[in-house]
Structures are given as structure tokens and as C-alpha cells.
Amino acid sequence: MRFSMREAFSAIERRRRGDKFASHARKLLDLTNISVETIQSCILLGTICYADAQTKSEALYYSVAIRLALILDLPRRQCTGEIERQVNLRIWSSLYMIDIWSSIGLNLPRQLSFRECRPLPADEETFLSLRDGAKLTASPHGRGLWAEMAVLSQIWAQIHELNKQSVGANMDSDALNHTVDDLARQLYSWAAALPSTLQETAENLQRYTALGLGNAFAALHLGYHYYFEVLFYRFLAKGAGSDPENPSIRGYRRQCEEHALAFCDLLYRTRAIDQCQCLYGMVGHMLVVTSTIYIHILLFSDQEEQVSLARQRLALNFEILTDLQSFWATLDVALSRLQVFHNACNRSIDKSFRMDQWMLTFILEHGSSVTERTFPDSPGLPGTLQGWYAQEFTS
Questions:
Q1: How far is it, in rounded angstroms, from Cα 358 to Cα 362?
Q2: What is the pTM for the complete model shown?
Q3: Among candidate residues 278, 380, 357, 358, the one with its CA nearest the CA of residue 321
Q4: What value, to the nearest 5°, has the Cα angle with vertex 166 and ends 160 and 171?
Q5: pLDDT higher than 90, residue 385
């Protein structure tokens, strides 16, 4: 309904088209019914809350879903057949990823550890081909999209922990750089180990789109690039590292920018393909963070070609964000965060990219409010994001 072009829905704001159904679903939820269906209902209601920027209610529904899955011992639950077992494993791995993202978003402790994500679900083609009574001893295609997302999310959780530790404690720069290198190696090794059918290629994107899985395929690789961005983001700041001009620091900065470019390359490609346009809300948060890397290029690069590309992409990203805003209330929050970041740049260009508690909240805690960032010696007046957009890109 939210995306429908039917005349019957034209008088209803896109964001509000599902309200009566969501309200009815809440009334039907029975938490005394300890079942897989109740878990699925809680996931659905949590996702609705996320879309409506009700982050505390979102976290509550997701927490209940995880607790129910633990009560049922979902990955080892006795099943009537392989289809039911694979559905349970897909729910379980989804909850593992939800636990990471939702907990990070509100800075809450996680409920699940990675060892609890095993066994991983079968690949999508095998799953979609299953019939009643089928037996599955091993997936002939190896790990699929959902399984790889769970594995990749484990590295994402480590990146989050590193950022928290480095801001909360006086972490030695050599130890920090060593851990950054290790996590980067894990990410690159993960990508290198993907089978040819899961590599980020235009052909694979088209193939998964034909299977109805284009958005999931894109989400896997958008996440990969975004995790790199967050891993290296701290090195954008002036004075980052013990020697900001040493080759390692410059390399981190370059890789952060390269993955921001790759993130948008893929996102723009998906938006040109029907049924694979990545119109889900979390893209908005990731695109806001990615756009701040383009702002860094715009402000600090001395290469005219880079600056021109950053300007073009910021304009396109702003259009994508406002397009997503028409569907999801959570994009109001994402755009307000970009406004706050823009205000910080107005106050102090040099200090705006410094990794501290404010920046940690801005990048990672997508469910938390972000206050204006102030610098005592730089009281510049903020403008509006729309005004900046008009001045920079439409004049």
C-alpha cells in the first residue's frame, strides 16, 4: 500500500496508509501464545515502529521476539519438516542481525552472541526450491544471502565495540590502528571468500532481482561498504592518529572515501532497476553518514575532479533522502541529523569530524536523538539544510 500508485490510495499520505492495519495487528498480538507466529508478529510490529520513528517501542517488540525465540530454542526446535526448520533458522539469523542493529541504535546491551546464530540457514535458491517432505543434509550452493548477512554482521558488531572503546577510554593509537587493520582484513577476507554467485556484480544484481531478492543482495553489499566507512571514519578528522600524515592514516582516509563512492555506486544502480530500489528506511541513515564523507571531500579535497563528483553526489543523495522521506517517518530523524551535522560544519570545519561521544551517537545510534554540536571558540550560526542545498547545488 505504501508504494501503491492506485487511485484508491491517492488521498492517503503514503506514511499513514498502513496505520489501521498496524493498530489491528497490535490488538491481535497475544504474548501468552508462545509460538513462532508470535515471534514473527513482534518482528513485524517492531519494524513498523522503526518506520514510524518509535524507536523505544521498536526495541521492546524486538526484545520480546528474541526472548520468545530463546524460550522456544528456535534453531534446535523440533520440526515437522525441512521447510519449517529453514523458516526457523531464517527467523533466528534475522533476530541476530536485528539484535545488533537495534541495540546499537539505542546504545542498549545485546541479547544474543554470534555462537547462538548457528546453524546458519540454507542458501535462498535451495530454500525456495524445497518441497514438503524434502530432506536437506547440506546446501549444495554454500552459504546464501541471509547466512552471509549474519556472518558480516558479526564483524559489524566488532567495529561498533571498537568505536565505543576508543571513545570511552584513552586507547593507545598503535593498538587502535592494529585493531582497525585486523577488522579491515576480516572484511576483505569475507568479500574474497564469497562464491562467484554472491560477488557484487551487475549480473548477480540482475539475477537476484529476477528471483525477487534484489533488495537483499543489495543490502548485503551496501552493508559491506558502510561497515568500512564506519571503521575508517575517525581518520577523516584533522589530527586523527599519532601522525595524521603517515601513509597508514592517509590510507585509512582514502579507503573510507572509496567505500563511500562504492556505496553510492551500488545504491544508484539499484534505483535504476524495477523491484530493486532499496526503498527501506535504514538506507536513509546509512546514506546520511555516507553523505558526510562527501561533505568532507567537498571541504578538504584539493582535487577539482573529486570536489565536482562530491558536489554531484551530495545533490543526488539529498534527492534520494527526500524521496525516502515521503515513505518513512524515520527519514525525518535521518534528515534532522544531517541538518545538525551541517550546523556543526558551519561552526567549525576543522573539528566537525572528530571522533568523540557526539560523533559516536551520530554515526551509530540511529535511534537516539542528536543534540547540536557546539565548539566554545567557534560560535558560527547554522543555516538550513534546504538553504545549503539550494545554494550549493541549484544555483
A1: 6
A2: 0.92
A3: 278
A4: 145
A5: no
